[in-house]
Amino acid sequence: MAEEPAVSAFHIMAKPTGAACNLNCRYCFYLRKQGLYPGSSFRMSDKVMESYIRQTIQAHQVPQVAIAWQGGEPTLMGLEFFRRAIDCQKKHQRPGTVIQNSIQTNGILLDDPWCEFLRENRFLVGLSLDGPRPMHDAYRVDKAGEGTFDRVMRALRLLQKHRVDFNILATVHAANAERGLEVYRFFRDQAGAQFIQFIPIVERDNETGPRGSGEVADCSVRPEQYGRFLIAVFDEWVRRDVGRMFVVTFDGLLAAWAYGKSSLCVFHPTCGLDLALEHNGDLYSCDHFVEPERLLGNILEQPLAELVGSPAQRKFGRDKQDALPRYCRQCEFLFACNGECPKNRFIRTPDGEPGLNYLCAGLKAFFRHVDDPMRMMADLIRRNRPAAEVMRILAARDMPEASKPRSIAAWSLLQEGAGRRPGRNDPCPCGSGRKFKHCHGRPRDGKGGAL
Ligand code: SF4
Ligand code: SF4
Question: 23, 86, 163, 264: which has the highest count of C-beta atoms within 10 A?
Fold first, then answer.
């Protein structure tokens, strides 16, 4: 059998403190992972850190290398650990490669020195914030059960003061799921954020992780709610903010409409290139599958590249596609959805086949709702035009018939949206009620077509 080619690029979320965190968010699936390492200090040694960095750089056959820090709460390692990590990157960096560090944090420990460091080393910071105070504080609490909204907003202002690149990571859960528009406007108008990522909370009441059984936990977003949340945000974004606000879910999906493949792992046909590294060097198939059955090995004992390209990991990646139920294979939105993340595939299809995604009903409603504007934006992109032009097209379309401007510019926008020219005897799209040939299709100067 022919050998499979080596993996040329991948993404590892390193968890230098394992599951240890200074907060106690009620929906956090990762806190329970401490049980995998009883008695551990939950601190990554410099030996593991250097091995992670050196091997990640060496294994990449592309010029961009992503080094990602996550948790638990990675800032608990202290600033000095990260200074050493940067020194280590400089030591192992190859000429022509660019290393991009990212760190996901709850923001509690950020201060001026931290922000200076993050800015100086061009970190991309993901800050966890779930919306206005009541929605954020519903689940994002400290060890004493106190809400953390004020402390996270303080961190956000510090990041802005120091001009650190950051995005908001907002989970969608029972307390904010029906308030999508409010949450989005809060991020845009009050927080001053430009990049937002929404993650649905789908948790089950069990101790074993995604593959265990158990009822869906109360904090979770319900499928239809998730659809409504995304639709509410999308409708605002697509009419006002394309090109100036960036919602990761929308951008990732737009790639599917434009090029046939999403850039987001949850909507990608296969998995396998987004792994998780625990504090002691144990490498797992994915952040959502840190469980004994998905342990690939330890990077101090086996080469990282070998683990990433191992048969077990390749099978994990392919399983996403191979395990799709027929219902998904026949879905009109398979190209965009691909059954979403396998961790959420625990319900049955209408005809009883297992393995349907819990969020399916909401996802499908959302895909159906955005299909038309997504097609418009995809078409613009393919013609090397800015996707932001969709806002003018939609504005022209949204106008009531009676008040549509009788201008050639408006007509042309309408036509761009529709993607066709009207026939001579068709009604004029300006809304006059006259035939196109007698209205905006009338020859100008008696010489030729007006448009
Ligand atoms: S299991 Fe889910 S989160 Fe992990 S790589 Fe696959 S789609 Fe992404
Ligand atoms: S929308 Fe539902 S049926 Fe369609 S691919 Fe996604 S999970 Fe499957």
Answer: 23
Determine which one of 130, 137, 241, 287 is catalytic: 287
Q: How confident is the model at residue 35 (pLDDT cuts 50, 70, 90)?
A: confident
pLDDT for residue 450: 30
User: How confident is the model at residue 31, as a pLDDT?
Assistant: 74
Mean pLDDT in residue range 228-246: 98
Average of pLDDT values for 133-156?
Answer: 97
| Residue whose structure tokens are 């206005």 | 132
Q: Is the CB of 364 under 6 A from ligand 2?
A: yes
Q: Give the predicted TM-score (pTM) of the model.
A: 0.87
Q: Can you tell me the distance from the alpha carbon of 58 to that of 75, in angstroms, rounded to the nearest whole number?
A: 26
The Cα 106–Cα 72 span in angstroms is 9
> 318 to each of 11, 309, 313, 334, how far by Cα in Å?
17, 12, 9, 16
| 205 in catalytic set | no
**Cβ-contact 233, 247 below 8 angstroms:** yes
Best residue among 333, 345, 369 to mutate for probing ligand 2, ranked by most atoms within 8 Å of CB: 333
Taking the C-alpha atoms of residue 275 and residue 10, their distance in angstroms, rounded to an integer, is 8
Query: Does residue 328 line the site of ligand 2, with CB under 6 A?
Result: yes
Evaluate if residue 2 carries a pLDDT over 60: no
- Cα 236 from Cα 251, distance rounded (Å): 15
The SS3 assignment for 430 reads coil
How far is residue 13's CA from residue 5's CA, in Å, rounded to a whole number?
23
Ligand 2 proximity of 387 Cβ (cutoff 6 Å): no
Encoding tokens for residue 58? 């060496």
